[in-house]
Amino acid sequence: MKQTAIYQKKRVNHSKWFNKWIQSPKWLAGFGIAFLVAILVYVANIFVGELHPANAWGLSYGIGAAVLFVGVMIYSLRRRTMGIRALPRSWIYLQFHVYGGALFLMLMFMHANFQLPNGIITWWLWILSIWIVVSGLIGIVIQKWIPTVLNTGLTTEVHYDRIPTLIEASGVKAKKLVAMSGGLVRDFYAKHLENTFLAPQPRLMYFLDAASSIHKDTQKFDHVRPFLSDDERLRFDELKMIYRTKLEMDAHFTLQRALRWWIFAHAPLSILLIVLLIVHILSFVYY
Ligand code: HEM
């Protein structure tokens, strides 16, 4: 009997978690290898010879960091040339941006022999490099994490720009309901709710668990509800719904704002870093 062998290409079945956070295992592996090589070179350097920012070892690390920096910044150019189809996909530039940026920081530390800087410019270079890379990492976390919280933890969808207007409208609705209610509800409203309808109220807790935070906050309604008449209860439940929606808008405001604004903590300072890097290199070449 003729035997047939069926060869199946082995499919790597990464977990959902892995797929969400790591867009390309190949890039991650490449980064891991490059990072390991950098550590090995540094350790070998310590055993073999002296390390100083201006000797051959230190200069090599510095030049490596500068080359990576240029590569990292090319992503910015690619973003402005999205229409040019002949160029590789901008995703590739972003992968280099992220992993190259992290490696840049490692080489910068190696260039400085993992010591604190001495001069003013070198201090600025040191702080800015750390700031930009760390803010980039935070940006990645924000970009991956926030859409999940928005999709799984909240029941409403709302456009960021409309939030203040919608909160104002909720406040008007809530006021109307309270005007029709008795003293207990009015006191409760004045004590716990009135001020919350004035503006969006961002909270750090929404980053971690928006749904639980909102649920906890609305529990205060349960202390008053048993003491109301059937009629009032209906209005009170409606008030609770309005308040809940307001809290959801607060959560949207907190999370969408972070999604919009983190880039301003990351990208603009890179211009300063470019200028200082040029000054740093020129001052070494000419003095
Ligand atoms: C040398 C270090 C770095 C510099 C100078 C730098 C600079 C920049 C600049 C200028 C932009 C704006 C691009 C544009 O729209 O024109 C940007 C975007 C971005 N950077 Fe960095 N970056 C660095 C490292 C990193 C690292 C290490 C990460 C992550 C670990 C990172 C994550 C990001 C992300 C996620 C974006 C936004 C991508 C997008 O949505 O288009 N960056 N960076």
Task: Tell me roughly what share of residues is in helical segments.
Answer: over 70%
Count of the separate structural domains: 2
**How does the major sheet shape up?**
none
Overall 3D form: elongated
Uncertain runs = 1-11
Mind telling me the C-alpha Rg? 28 Å
Distance between the terminal alpha carbons, to the nearest Å? Answer: 82 Å
The helix/strand series, from N terminus to C terminus, equals HHHHHHHHHHH
Strand content: under 5%
Verbal overview:
- It is a single chain.
- The chain is mostly helical.
- The protein folds into two domains: 25-133 and 264-286, no CATH class; 160-262.
- The protein contains eleven helices and no strands.
- The chain has helices at residues 16-21, 25-48, 56-79, 90-111, 120-153, 163-179, 183-193, 205-218, 221-224, 230-266, 269-286.
- Helix 4 packs across helix 5 (120-153) and helix 5 (120-153) packs antiparallel against helix 11.
- The longest helix is centred in the last third of the chain and has 37 residues, at 230-266.
- Bound molecules: protoporphyrin IX containing FE.
- Residues 69, 72-73, 75-76, 79, 94, 97-98, 101-102, 104, 132-133, 136-137, 139-140, 263, 266-267, 270, 273 line the site of protoporphyrin IX containing FE.
